Amino acid sequence: MVKPIAFRNARAPQAYVSHTAPRPFHRTELSTSGTVRDELFGSLDLYSEVKVIGRRLLSSNGHTAPSKAQAQLQAYLRQGKAFFQAAELLDYRASPLSYYYSFMNLAKACALVRDPKFNDANLHHGLSAGAGTGALRNHDVLVRSAGVFQIFYQSILAGSLPRSSRLNVAKLLGYVSDVSHEYHTLKFGTSRVHNGRMAGVIGGNQQAHGLLAVGATYKEQKPPPVLVRSKHFEVVQLGAIHASNIFALPADQARGMLFVETKKTFPPVRAGTLPMKDIAEEIVAALGDSLSINPFSGPWQFAINETMPGRIAMQEVLAIYLVMFYLGSLVRYRPWILEAMLDKKEAWIVERFVKTTPLTFLRYMRNIIDGQNLVYVLR
C-alpha cells in the first residue's frame, strides 16, 4: 500500500492580501448590456479604426514607423473580424475553415504589434494536417520549420517548438476549457490545465511569501509537475479556516485544492505592507511558459498548463488555434474524413469545440494584442 504524501503545514499567516493582485494577475472586469463578442471586437476596432490609437499601441511596442504599421494592423484586424462573422453564419461542419482564417489574421496582428521586424512576405501557415483517419486519437497537426504559427507561438511563450513536432489533436483538446466536460466524459483523459489564485502572506517570521491555491478539474487530475518537487515552490497543508479567510474557499472545496508556497521570501515594504509586485514576479518567473492568465470572470486568476509529450509547452489559446486549423484543413481537403468522424462519439466534442471556442479565442487575443487583462461579462 502506497502511503499518502505528508506535506508540512503552511506558515502561519499574520497578514495577507488576496483580493487585489499586481500585473499580470490583476484583471479588470467590464460589464455590457450587449454581447461579449461585440464588446471584444469593439475594443479591437479601437486600434484598427481610430488610427491615432492604433499608432500609439504600435509606438509603445517599439515601432518607429507606426503609420505604415497601422495600415497593416488595420488589415489584419478587419480580416479577422470579417472571417469570424462569415464563420458564424455557417454550419459547424463548414465553419472551421473560416474561423481558422480569422484566427490566423488575429495571430498576425499579435505578431505585428509585438515585433516591429515582423515580415509577412510569403509567410506560410507553418502547419500541416496529418493523414490520420477514424477516431480523434489518430489525428495530428504537424509543425513546420517556419510560418505564422511559430511566430505566434514565440510571441506568447518564451520557448520555440522543435522542428517537425507532431501534436495530437485529442491531447490538444485537453487544454480547452470549453470542452473539458465532454473530454472527460468521452474518456479522452483528464484536463491538462489547473486553475489557480495567488495571495501574498506575511508569516510569523515577518517575511512575506507567495501562496497559491490550485484546483483540479476532476479528482483524477494529478498536481501539475511544475509545482511538485520544485526548487521554487513547496506544497503545504493549509487549514480550513485560513483557506476560507485568505481565498474565501468553503471547507468542502478547500479539501480538493493544492496549496503551494513560494520558497523565496521577501521583506515587507514597510510594517504590515506586502511586496505584492515582487511576489508576483517570482511566481511568474518560476511558472514560466506553464502560466496563462484567465480571460474569464470568476475567482481563478490564472491557469497552470502541463506540457505535452516531448515537454512541449502548450496553452489554451494555442491549442484552440491548432485544433481549428486541423478541422479547417479537413473541411477544405478531406471532408469525407470529417464526416466519418462526425458519425462517431467524437461528433459531440467536435461540435461543442467549433461552437464555443471561437469566443474564448477572441477573449485571449483581445488581451494578448494590447496587453490589458480585460474580462467582459453580461450585465
Describe this structure in words.
This protein has 379 residues and is α+β, with helices and mostly antiparallel strands. It has two domains: 15-24 and 193-305, no CATH class; 33-190 and 310-378, no CATH class. Helices cover 42% and strands 15% of the residues. It is built from 13 helices and twelve strands. The protein has helices spanning 36-49, 51-60, 66-88, 95-114, 148-156, 169-172, 180-185, 240-247, 251-254, 276-287, 316-333, 335-341, 346-370; strands at residues 15-17, 28-32, 127-129, 140-143, 166-168, 193-202, 208-215, 233-236, 257-262, 291-293, 302-305, 374-378. The strands form three sheets. Strands 1, 6, 7, 8, 9, 10 and 11 form a seven-stranded antiparallel beta sheet that branches. Strands 3-4-5 form a three-stranded antiparallel beta sheet. Strands 2-12 form a two-stranded parallel ribbon. Helix 1 (36-49) packs antiparallel against helix 3 (66-88) and helix 3 runs antiparallel to helix 4 (95-114). The longest helix has 25 residues, at 346-370. The radius of gyration is 22 Å and the shape is globular. The termini are far apart. The relative contact order is 0.19. The mean pLDDT is 91.
Question: Can you describe this structure in just a few lines?
Answer:
With 379 residues, the chain is of the alpha+beta class. It folds into 2 domains: 123 residues, no CATH class; 227 residues, no CATH class. It is built from 13 helices and 12 strands.
